[in-house]
From TrEMBL:
It comes from Caballeronia glathei. The chain crosses the membrane at residues 107-129. Possible subunit of a heme lyase. GO terms for molecular function: metal ion binding. Belongs to the CcmH/CycL/Ccl2/NrfF family. The lineage of its organism: Bacteria, Pseudomonadati, Pseudomonadota, Betaproteobacteria, Burkholderiales. This is Cytochrome c-type biogenesis protein. Keywords: Cytochrome c-type biogenesis, Heme, Iron, Membrane, Metal-binding, Signal, Transmembrane, Transmembrane helix. GO terms for biological process: cytochrome complex assembly.
Length: 160
């Protein structure tokens, strides 16, 4: 009986150690959770270079998976958000950013839609102004009399 009692005590101690280690570890650390959130936010701020209309986080393209891995690797190595963005921009240009910076190189990108809207409004205003200017000329009194005479003669010829 003594060996069995020894085995039971050992089993209880081992189970207690496992439970205590699990309690001390407590699952993923807050640092790991905050890194995961940070990585997800970074992935959302980049455009998938293959899909072009999807965030890197939502894309299923192989390149997107590689870039997500690169972002996670850089965050794990202690890179700041700015350093990760700088790396991506150096490598792929401002196009990789969903919100490109407002600088001389991207002025057309930011101001282009507004300029096109203004140009369209200007063209529309010119067309409307030309149509207003193209009203039919007024008939002189003599021309009006002749037109009335023609209209009256035509209506008499048709009869009831």
């Amino acid at each position: 009986m003594k060996p069995r009692l020894h085995l039971t005590r050992w089993t209880v101690r081992a189970a207690l150690c496992v439970v205590l280690c699990g309690a001390l570890h407590g699952g993923p650390s807050r640092a790991a959770e905050s890194d995961a959130v940070r990585i997800r936010e970074l992935e959302q701020s980049f455009r998938c270079l293959v899909c072009q209309n999807e965030a890197l986080a939502d894309s299923s393209a192989d390149l997107a998976a590689d870039l997500r891995g690169k972002i996670a690797e850089q965050v794990a190595n202690g890179a700041t958000d700015a350093q990760v963005r700088d790396y991506m921009v150096r490598r792929y240009g401002d196009f990789v950013l969903y919100k490109p910076p407002f600088k001389p190189l991207t002025w057309l990108l930011w101001l282009g839609p507004f300029l096109l809207l203004c140009a369209g409004a200007l063209v529309l205003a010119r067309v409307v102004a030309r149509r207003r200017a193209m009203r039919p000329p007024q008939l002189s009194a003599d021309e009006r009399r002749r037109a009335d005479a023609l209209l009256n003669r035509t209506s008499e010829d048709c009869g009831p």
